[in-house]
Amino acid sequence: MSPLSADSGNGYHNDDDGGKLNDCEHSLRCRCIPSTTSSSPRSLCRSIIDAKEYEKLRRIIIASAKGFSIGAGLKGGLAFFAILARLMRKTPQRKEIVVTNGEVILTAMKETLRYGLFLGTFAGTFVSMDELIGAIGGHRFWTARWRALLAGALAGPSMLLTGLEMQHTSLAIYILMRAAVLASRCGIKSKRFGRICKPLTWKHGDIFLMCLSSSQILSAYILKQESLPSSYKSFLNKHGGKDMAILQGVKDIASGKPFTNLEAVEKYYKTMGVNMKLDPNMNVPCSIVHGNQSCTGHIFSFLLQAYKRALPVYLPVYLIPALIVHRQGLLKRPHSILAKGLVGTARSSLFLSVYCTSAWMWTCFLFRLFKRCNVPMVAMGTFPTGLALAIEKKSRRIEISLYCLARAIESFFTCLADEGYLPQSRKIKRADVVVFSLSTAIIMHCYAEEREVFRSKYLNVLDWVFGVPPPPCETPRCKDT
Description:
Blueprint: E1 12-14, E2 20-22, H1 23-31, H2 41-88, H3 101-137, H4 141-155, H5 169-188, H6 205-223, H7 230-240, H8 244-254, H9 262-271, H10 286-290, H11 295-324, H12 327-332, H13 334-370, H14 375-382, H15 394-418, H16 431-449, H17 456-466
Antiparallel strand pairs: 1-2
């Protein structure tokens, strides 16, 4: 009996030097044993090694290409719908900002390319580092425990490809939130940390996080917009449905300062066909917010307008993933998938429109109830706005709440820094890259070692890009022979 096949009943095999090999290593070694029926065992062994190296290179190239396609597809798809909405508008929203359509299209193309290179480089770097570590340290069990962790951390700096001077604090915090969710799920199923992480299993925790986030985000939208990311600020200004003069008027009365622009508010309503004179001694800003409309009438009219604004937002959100995640099913059952996407679009649009409407509804209610308007009232009135998240599907609630929580955290710490409570925070450069790298290390480790903590749709995308994580003995996979 060959020494390589001895002691095979317990899953291990003796090598020529008396050591132990597991089944997968034994299978690999057996491929290179000179066979009595083969005329050139060395060339056969060399061809097997060349095939393995080619498979590794192929995995890297495919992962890079798929990562690029996702990054460019998502960013390009969103840019396409934004440009389409711009072209459909008869006049620009702000006359003082004049940007030609050609400049917008060129900027969109650049951003699409950058994000494609970002995700393509991330995917390629992760797979390359995974294979390199496996080649140096071996593909045994002990390297599998930390290989994906290190590879994910080393792939994180690919974020710099989106722009060396462009900060992505919101994205980094959001990915950190995603990593924290995965880590908490690992803790919940752990015997050691299960009791500590049990509160994280609260059924309506996602709605509570949304309420908490809404209090900070919507308060900042009214009182301190400069604490919000520029793109998110534009989003809120559009779906908040109020002119900047109206927001300034609410800010003045909430801050306890004399009005600075009541004439601008009156002029705005005059352009809308409403002639009114505002009282500079008012205690509540309802007449500033909705003119001569009643609070109830304003709620219903605003809801219809908000729904029309929300539909173009969620159409690409459901259409683009359908083309990527459900690409195979789309060919077999296009009608059911498209119908599901349209229902999801209608439902999510209702959520966003109710969310924006309830922000003004709750604040008006509290202002009328307590006969005053101040900063605590604004924060209290925007807290229950997050209850609108209950309209969304349960599977989407945690995604939306984490997205908003990331922006709320960024806005909160920006406010603290502006007030002088965090003076050193301004000196930290590219902290977003550090946070992103730490987060991707956790996520990729969970992907390789704790796959059950992922939802199936995300796991399918990760498997499509990176390939199914290899077993400890071989990368990319221990194939049956």
